[in-house]
Every structure is written in structure tokens, then in C-alpha cells.
Amino acid sequence: MRTKVKNGSRTKKPDFFKPGVLVQSSWMPHSADACSIAASPGRNFFHPLMFLWRVLSIGLLLLAWVPVFAATHGGDCMLQRYIDTHKGAPSGGLNCVSEDVRLHNYTKLSGPEVCALGEQINVSVRAEFQSGATERYDVGVFFTEQGLTPNAVGGTCYSDYLHDASAASLPPVNDDLDLTGGSGPFLNLEWDQDPLDVCGDIDRDNPSTLETESFQVTCTDRNQDGLVDLSSCSVWQTGGSKGTLQSPSCTSEADVTAETAAACSCVVLDVASLRVKRDMGDAPAGYAEAWQSVKTELYLGSLMPAIDDEFNWGGDGIDDSLAAADDDEEDGTWFDPAKAGVPGSYKVGISVVNTTGTDAVLAAWLDLDCSGTFDAAEMQTLTVTTSGAYLLDWGSVTLCDTDATQTFARVRLGDSSDFVSAPTPEGWGGYGEVEDYLVELSGVTSTPVVIADFAATQREQGGALVTWLTASEIDAAAFRLERRVSTGPQQQNERWQRVHQVSWIPALMAVQGGHYEVVDASVMTGEVYSYRIVEQTGSGARIVYGPYDVSVVAGEAPVSSSVNDYLSRKRLDVAKVAQRGKHAQKPAGNNRIINSKASKGQGGELKAASSLKLAVSQSGVYTLAVDELADYLKISTTELIELQALGLISLTTGGFEVDWYADPDGTFYFYGEQADSQFSATRTYWLNAYQAGSDMNQLDVDAVEQASAARFVDQRHFEEDKIFFLTASDSAESDYWFWAILSDAAPSGAFELQVPAAYEGVGHISVGLTGLTSTRHEVQVQVNGFEIGSVVFSGNTRHTQTLELPVSVFANGGDSLAVVMTLTKNESNNWNALLLDDFTVDYVRGYTATADRLAYSSAGLTTLGGFSHEEVVTMQVTDPRHPVWVNGGVVSAAGGNFSYSADLPLGDYVSSSSDGLLTPVSVVIDAASDLVSKRNHADYVIIATDELWEGAVALADYRSANLDTMVVNLQDIFDEFAWGEPDPSAIRGLVKASRQWRTVPRYFVLLGDGNFDYQDRMGLGYNIISPMMTGGRKDLHTNDTLLGDPDETGKPLAAVGRIPAKTLQQAMDYVAKVKAFENGSFNLPSMILTDRPDRAGNFTLSGQLLSSVVEGGQTILNAQGNRFVDVKADLIESLDQGLGLLNYIGHGGIDRLSGSGLLVNEDADSGLINVHTPVFVGLTCLVNFYAIPGFDSLGERLVMRPDAGVVASWAASGLSQNNEAAHLGFVFNDVYNQHERLGDVIIDAFNETNALANVYTLLGDPALKLQK
User: What backbone phi and psi angles, to 5 degrees, belong to 240?
Assistant: First the structure.
């Protein structure tokens, strides 16, 4: 029998098995003394001889027993053990679903932290057993070493059992349990068996743990939770010593087996702290979890994914294994920033590695509504069969609401059957990779070059002169140069310290950038220092460039090194830009391809149309003497007077009829208004003879005695256009010329405003300002020494505020106002700057003429003084296009001058003596063209001026071999489509009219350079064909492409290209260049040149995507991972050897590719010797911005280089976003070989995607025949 001692529910071992304790057995008779032997009906253990025999036997057993602790490695699994033990397989197979003994948990004791799926690893674990039965015996466990089978039934296994871990200890006995220690002793319910039982048992109340030896398994993750799975089976005996297998004892691991086919339990459990190599998404926790197993044959980008930790789930779109680094391994793509709430196309190129030989699915989700979830409608998918670059296109979308600042995207590449059939943004997707991206919605990140040529040079006075240039400045308000310094007792702390004395260095407000020099007196020659540049933008953001680690080099600093703090200057290249005088007027009838039209005169007789263009520069009464006008019209004075009498003189401006007056002698009068156009300082009036017009109504007024001194409120507008700032607005109609800048660096400005005949009285002054920065602006205004108040507003917007002018301002008389404006410095550390646009002054004025003329308002008895002649003309001009001729009134002599008095009804008037009458600044006889005629026909239209006419004819002659050509004079276009005003959009009017021609033109050439200084304020004079400006992202820029879009849909119908020649010689050289290209070598290779990737775009990936559609031989030249000097050398060498097509993707400035200058203007001037001139496609910013006064773009330098460079440049003239640019380049190259001529490729590309039609422009001939 066995004796059990109960302590609660726990079964205890008899105390006499405790080491070192003398125990009195509970079943020894208490009446017997120690020397007595009690009788027993069976064996008598305490018979003296028997007792001695037992003691000796146990001693000999302990001396001879060697415990069998070794587990089995690489042995049989459970089924084979069963077969060996039972001498046969179970008839129905093993049924291992019992809960009698089950493995509950695994904890790793030794082994790697992570493993790749399928990798063989060695681990040891702590295995926890639980029992659902009262008692089970001889518990063992089998672990499959293959790992790929769902359990440890078959194959090769590691097997183990509950046994004491120490060879020095006693075999497991029913005493002093350590059930959860993992190393025993374990419960042994069969301690009294012979031979001694060494296999541990278990019951419902006593779970146990086992610490295994290190064994080999295959890394698996069947439940896709990221933890390694172990496939195992536990086995046991159900009857203990009553069982039939190990009766009476289990003496080694080899005895461990299932007693019956159901005495086993198989499970697959995770091993805590042993992770499978996998890649996880890291979008914020609100987005569903997603992960992929890692495989070397299937991933995104060019780098294997890092191993992500599930406990770091939920982030900011930055890969959690890299903390705040730049997501080096998340290189599959880049989601470019977008503008929240603004519709636009969104496309993403994604690089994939798939060498598995089987299909995988590429899926991407873009949280379009910022809901915090990835929805099915936000998904784009593709099947990926091989490695390469793939394009996902969401089409036209609106990302979130306007106040959103960010959203997220997820890209998954997976191969599991479930994922391939129905991709989801969550859970496991098989092998592959998942990448999450933060998508900024605060605005578009474009690709302009900002900082270039950073250097530090020794100064003679000590320290160094730190220099750099800005290759472009768009929305830049100010810069700050900082150097990294060490602080603290052991120099253990680092911080950035401003170098210059002033808080900020003002930006130059020049889109082409400028040169900056800063004195750093605290550095030494030969030492290396780390600098950075902080830009404050007009919108309030701060952008950090650098750091730049530079050595202070010995040498001679620039002459300007004498500056004490900083110096800056705009980049101008006037020496390279041809200086030209004022263009001559086009002679009548000269250089006309189009015949003059005719008009029908009075009585049905056909007469030659006589049209005059009268240009006026200011508002007032204009006159033309009868003989002068008759001479212009080529008719007699008699005939002119007859036409006036018959009303057969027509006067118009801007398409509106204007009333005129002729006196009996034939002198012609009209009221002219000053121009309000940014394109010209004059307004054009058309005078047509033999066309019915409208003469003025007349008003008879009474003569009166001289009225008492009277006054009226006059209003005068003051505006001077001295500086331009293109980022002040993104509207093409905006005025980007300003008077002055007020800033923290120069906070005050003085301005003198003429106010003739001012009287004492209350007036008002309106101040028009535009903020350069997003800060609060406060300007104190002082007039004639009196503080009259302040103008206060915030932001970089236009603001007009009116202040009262007290009587004291006018108390001292005088005809001018001295205005002083002072900008108050903000308390914040932000740069403060604004632009002065204009003033408007209302003041009390006397009726005194200035320069023998006066514009005034009146209602009743009025006397005007100050005329130098007794002949005074008066018109009522309340409606300026329909003035009224005033008859009557009286002129009187007064103090050496003359006065005019009349009783005038309420209205606005202008009076001039004969000496104050105005005459047009020019009169041009026009021979009318007929560009709207449907009889016109041409495939190819060249627009030119007289200066370059010969070049236009040469190009037309060359093209006429294959195309129907026409040369059109630019002025004819202005005359027919802009009422004679030099409005560049008139060219779009011609394109629209040409859609009705008998042959509709496909190509339009603008022969001549141009700039946005339409009125030649800077005096450079080479604005041959003015560009049309268009609004973009934070900027205004030129765009010729949209001239070919007559319906303004964003999809041009005709290809427009500009040949930016400044001289006839340049025009002729370009014609020769085109001929050489089209008649030169064919089958030249293409090149794709890419900049180093950064936050503005993964240019390397974009280049890979582009390469998939570039046909023929091609070379990819990648700046990533290579020295710029080597890349530039390779580029120039390739150009010299001959290229047919050169694509560039990356950062660009007006005069350069890349901030490191892969190609710059100086290279275009003299560094290139390539005979074969390729087509250049610049998928970047600003390279074709040809229209900056005094500064050529890289595109025009390359195109106009006569013996090298490129034959055509299709690139951005404004800011370009890489996402859209890469897609546009993809489409362009995809259709490149489908067309014969360059312009057709461009039209086709914009028909596919018009996202950048307002940014990309062509410099070169749109009818260029492409090399194939």
C-alpha cells in the first residue's frame, strides 16, 4: 500500500524521504520499542535480516545508478516511438487531441533574437505543462526539428521528459516538489517502483515546467503573429505502474511514449521573445496593423526591409527600426507632399524586386479623407511578375479638408494566396514588404536648387569669409548662417550659433538668387567647421539647409571681404545678355505675309481702309490738327472735314467706341485715358476713316462772373515700379512690381508726393502694402512731420489702409507731402518685411490748373485759374468713353494768367488751354491683316518681329519642304487679338482663330527672346516677344505652352516653342543647328540623369521608372552614391560622344542642374564640345525660366549655343513637383517613339496628363524631327 499525506488539496511525499530527518513511520506499532519487530501478514520490511537486505540493496542501487538525463536529438518522432514500443502502428492512427496533458506556453532560454522564415536555428525553451486529468504518468514531449510539419507526429524530432536536471541529485521522488523551476525535482507518483522510476508525473493540481537542452528547429510562423512557432506533442501514461508499457518503471527517455493512441496532445505554440524577421507598417496606431515576412527574393525598393518590432507599432510613418532616421530601407517609393483640399492628380512610382518566379501583388492605400483608416476605395493594385518600376495612379483626387496638415499611405508587396486574391491593408500578406509613408498636406515640396557653392576663405583681417549663392529664391524672406559650436566644461554640449551680427540677412527677392558673403571672425585657417543655413519663408516656415562641413582655405577672399558683417547682391549676367535699344516701329506694309483687308466706304464704294493707331500716355484732352491728321490718312483736308461732317470717323479703344469732336476747321479732339495695363505704359486708340463713328454730344453752359474762391476734393494716385517680386502673388493678373521694401534691416523710407494747389483742410492717405512675411506688420506713418497713425496687418497679403490727414499737415502750404514710413520691429525672432506698392491721397484743392490743364469735379458756379492762354477747351468726362463737349463759359485775364468761369452741372470735367492740350506719343499707320480669315492655311506658323524677320523667313523656307508654313508679324497679332496692346495672350487668340483655318496649324514658333519687364523698367531692351506669365506654386513664371491652349482646358491643342534669339545672328545660327540635328547621326543612345534622393523626391526611383519606357540604347547616370565630380565628368563625356535624348530628374535652378552643378550656364557657354546636340527633358524646376531680365536660364543657354549644347529643351519654367514631373516624363518618353516631331510628343503627353502644362515650356522648334 501507499500512504498519502494530505495538506489541503496537495499530495505530499512522506516526511521520511526528507534528507537528514529521522522519521517515525505512521504505520509502525506505537506499543513496540525500537528493538521490537512487529509481525506482518506479507513481507516484513522490518524483519532484521530483511531490513538489512533492503538497506544494502538501496545503497548498492544508489552507488550503481547513473541517471539518464540526456534528451534525444535528431531521433524519431512520436509515431515511430509508438510503433517501436507497441510493436505496430495504431489501427486508427494517433488521436492527439486529449487535454489530459497539454503544453501551455514556451519561453526562450537560449537562441537568436530573430530568425528568417525557413532558417535552421538552435534554441532551448522552458515548456509549461498543464493537466486536465487527476493523474498522468511518465510525461514526455516531442519537438519537430523540421518545423514545416504541423506537429511532431512524424519526421525527425528532439524528445525530452520530466527529469531532474542535476546528475548529482537523487532521482525524482515524491518529496519536496519544485514543479515550476524547470529543473525538477518533479512529481513522481511511482517512486516506490522497482527498478526505480525516474520519469516525472503530473496531476491536475501540479503543473510543471521543463527546461530543454538546445535543439535545432526550422524558423516558422504559421499564425503570422511575428513569433517563432514550435510544433510539439506531449505524451503520457494513463495507468502508471498499472500500465502495460513501462510496468513497473520508466527508467529513461526512451521509455517515454503514448500509452494509447489517444494518450497524446499536439499543439503549435509561439516562443516568447523569439521573433520572425518581418516588416511591419508604422503608420499611427489608428491604422490597422500590417506585416510581411521577409524574403531576399521579394521586397520593395533596393534595400531589404529592416526587422520591425511589434511592440513599437503605431508611429509617424517613419520606420520604427530606424527611429527618426530617413527611412533608408523604406526606399520603395516616396509620397510627395500635396495641398489639402485642392483637386489634383496623384501618382506614385514604386520600385519592386521580385525574383521568385511567381506572381505577387503590389497594393497601395492613400488615406484620401484623413479618416485614420485605409479604405477599399483608396486602394490601387497591380500584379508584379518581375523586378522593375511600377506606376500606381489614383487619378484626380482631393486630399482631405483644407485645414488638414498630413495623412498617411501604405504600400504592400505580398504573395500569400489570400493577399493575392483580395489585398487588404491589414494583417499578414505573406512574403514581401510593407512601407508606410507620411504625406504632408501643408503644401507641395518642389525641387528647386536653393543653396550652392558653399565655401569659407581666409580673410586678411582674420577669420574667414563664408560665401554661398542661392540658385533660386522663391518665397524666401530672409536667411541666417549658423555654425555648430561646443559648450560646457568639457565641450560636451553642441548647439548652433548665429554667425552674423544682424538677426537675419534679408533675401534678395530675386527668383534667380544671388551671392551672399558673411564674416566669421572666430574661425581659423585649415580647420573644418560645420555650418548650416536657415531660410525663413514668406509663409512663415523655416527651412534648414546643410550642414555644410567646410575647411577654411587659405587664399585671397573677394574684394568685398572688407565688409564687417555681411554683403549680398543679386545674380545678374548683363554682360552675357545682349543690350538692345528701343525697337523701331514696324513700317506700314512691311514684312506682311497676310494681304491687307478692304472695307466698304460710304455709298457702297470700296476704298482702302485707313487705320491709325494713336498711343496716349496720360489722361487728358488730345488733339490732332486737320492737316496732320489728313496727312496720316493720306487724304486731303477737305475730304477729312467731309468725313467728319458725315460721321465717318471711328475712334475705339479696347474694342469700345469712343466719342470724338471736330471743330469747324477740322481740328480733331478726343479724351484719352492713361493705360492701366502691365504690358504697356500707353493706351492704344484706333482711328479709322470711312467707318461710321460717334461724335461727342455737346453741352451749352452759361457764362458767369468769376466765382468766389472755391475748392474741391481731388484724388491723386502715386505708384512707382522699381522692383519686382514674383512670389508676392500666384495670380497671372497680379501686379508684381513694387516701389520699396521696408524690413528689419532697413525699416524706414521717405517718399515725396506732389499735391498741387493744396488748401488747408482734412484729407486722407491710403497706403497700399504687401507683406513679405507672415508676421504682424505695424508701420508708423508720418506726413510733413506729423504722426498721423499706423498701418497694422498680418501675413503676406495685400493690405490697404486709409489714414486721416489733419489740417495741420497742410497748414504751411506747399505742393507736396513728405511721407516717412517706419516699420516697427516685432518682439518675436521672426524676420519682418513688407513691400510698398502705392499711395492714394484725397485732399482739398483749389481750382488752379497745373501745366495748363485741370481735371476736377464741379456742380454750379465754377472758376478755374492758372491758364497761360485764353483758348480753353472743356469736356465733361463723367463717362470717359463718351465725353461731352462743353460750349460756353467765359475766359478772363487775371494777374497775368487766364481764368475760365462757367455754371457747370454736376459731373467730372477736364479743362485745358491750348498750351495744355496733349498729342499722341505716337501715330502709326496700320495696314490691316486678316488672321481671322478661314481662307488661311498653314501647318507651321512662325511669329516674329521686323528685327528677326530674316531668320523667320530662313526657318520657314527650310520647313516648307515638308510643311505648309506662314510667317506672321507679332504686331499684327496684337492688332487683331488685343486691340493693338502688347498683351502676350493675344497669341492664344491667334491659335484659337487658326482652329477655323482651312489648314489648322500644328506648330507655332515664337522667334525671339522675351522677359517679364514688359515696359523695360530695367532698361535692358531685349523684350522681343513678351512671355505670358502664369500662376504656380508660390510663384509667377513664364509659360508658352498654354498659348497653344485656346480653350484654356490645360490640354494644349497646338505645340508652341520659343527660339530665344536676341539677335538675327542667333536666329540664323539656330536654324543651322536644327538642320544639323535633323540631317545628322541617328540611333544615338539616350541617357537618364538623376540627382541624389531627398525629401523632395526619390529621384533614383523615378529614373528607374523612366528607364522602363525609354526605348533603344540608354544609360542611367545616378548621383546617388557617387561623387558629383565623377557624375559630371561622365555626363559631359557622354554628351561629347553623342546622345539623342537626355532626361534629367532632380533638383534644378535657373542656371543649373542639381545643387552641386551637374550642368551650369558656364558649361553651356564653353564647357561643352558636343557636336551631336540632343533633345533635353528637364524634369526639375526653373531650368527653362528664360524671362528674367538680365539673366539667362540654363535651357536657353544650351539651346542658343550655336555649336554645342542641346537642340531643344523641354523643361519647367516654374516650380515642379517630382511626383507629377516623373509621371509627365514617363508619359513623354513612353510616346516619344510614336511621333516624328517633338511638338506632337508634347501634345500627346499633355493629353495624357496636364498637371504641369502651366509649368513646362519648350525652348526650341516644336516641329523638330526626332532621331530614332
Answer: 60, -130
